[in-house]
Amino acid sequence: MTAVTVALDWTPNTNHAGFYVALNRGYYKAANLNVIFLNPAQDAYKSTPASRVANGQATFAVAPSETVVSYNCQPKSSAKPHLQSVAALLQSDTSAIVTLQSSGLDRPRKLDGKTYASYGARYEGRIVQQMIKNDGGKGEYTEATPPMLGIWETVLAGKADATWVFMGWEGIEAKRKGIKLNAFSLEDFDIPYGYSPVLVTTQDILREQGETVRSFLAATTRGYQYAAEAPEAAGELMCQTVTEQHDTPLDVGWVVDSMQMLSEHFLTKDGLWGVQDKTRWERFLDWLSDRQLLTTSVQSRKKVKSVTASLDDLRSGKAGEIIPRNSLSSDALFTNAFLPQGR
Question: What domains lie within the chain, and their CATH numbers?
Fold first, then answer.
């Protein structure tokens, strides 16, 4: 069997449902694939999913679309490969910047002077900053970076005022616990956000292992179609498989509630999974460029002149040189060619 490794972006959750359904129902086995999912909790998120693919430790990674943008905007001195998205896990953006209703922070502009719990990503802080500005604020806030897998808990514990979550996962958890949230969708504040999450790989893998990629995506498509058609059953299958694979039991009620919400976001109106729209990618790239967020500096605590910047530097405009919009083509960032309907 052909080995395929997928580095997840978070501990197993319902965004990944189709993967675990495909594993449980034997779709990967039928395609002669031995698929292993890497849970970032294994190393406390010391390695990002994208870096695992870039370093050759994984075939695919789950990541937001801005990760793809970042890997295609590397410094000239970087040896990192460019990444390309081969499928969108969700057709709609189900993420939001959230605060506790009890905090009284019911508008993005009220985050001025507050603490945002950040994942430390290259564009994240500046996207949040722009949301605050779009709501009439100054965009001046503290960007804290607690341990990655504990970010959500810092908000629940009152140690941070806001963070970025998936409403289909943390949002459902909060609802089940009776915790009321204020949720600020990016689109509601004039930010044409891209797909999140997406499945990414390198162009070398696409070139050298194209048939394996096609087989994996075909089997995964079947998993997500099942999840969309039978969300409760899919949720139960996922819980069973995650326990077997990772020894990390999930709450069945939480998963099923989440699946009921997400089932309408897995597929296009035509019942297709994974498809990405060029216009949506172009809109996001145009927005990043128009706001001068396409810059050369990469986030890092290690200072390298003209190459890296702190998160504070990025938000304050000390982000390196502007990358011309015409140097970044969406065609290099995503492809539908390896999906079943793309053949």
Answer: 2-92+195-275+335-342 (3.40.190.10), 95-189 (3.40.190.10)
